[in-house]
Amino acid sequence: xxxxxxxxxxxxxxxxxxxxxxxxxxxxxxxxxxxxxxxxxxxxxxxxxxxxxxxxxxxxxxxxxxxxxxxxxxxxxxxxxxxxxxxxxxxxxxxxxxxxxxxxxxxxxxxxxxxxxxxxxxxxxxxxxxxxxxxxxxxxxxxxxxxxxxxxxxxxxxxxxxxxxxxxxxxxxxxxxxxxxxxxxxxxxxxxxxxxxxxxxxxxxxxxxxxxxxxxxxxxxxx
Length: 223
Fold this sequence. Notes:
This protein is an alpha/beta fold. It has nine helices and six strands. It has two domains: 9-20 and 90-220, HAD superfamily/HAD-like (Rossmann fold, 3-Layer(aba) Sandwich); 22-87, Orthogonal Bundle (DNA polymerase, domain 1), CATH 1.10.150.
């Protein structure tokens, strides 16, 4: 992939990418699993599950549970998360500047996230970002979570932009892998993991703590 070719569309993950909230998710998962007598190791759990839908995470952990039970467990986890994170919602540094430049250049943006609708709502509505996105794609619409490429491919389809002309912003290896499978370039936000966690991905064009550095990438000059 040509890393410096200007992007014609941007696709953002949400959790850990446009907001630095994964520690709150981590705490909510730890609380839920501990309440049900299951072990929880935060680091390995994040690396394995980030980008997956809650049902995809919970079903192997509760193999005897039916769909209603899985849904109830997922609901409990999200309640724990929203109660804790609600007062702390803020955009990752540099995000709004990048989005403003994309808007000015007519570069469309999409959100492709495994988050359930309620979690999307509190972030986008608090930050008033909903209208910035051409489309929002999530497993709640019937798509599998990451590392499957479906969320990103559907976002590109809805924006009518070729996959190779999209830049994906992600915070997890599952997300970068999903972008790779979709034929898209990716930039990693190091809100949870360091750069070594993303070694070996040939579609990765950059990694940074926030968008203030990524904003200077040649691919984001929108020439």
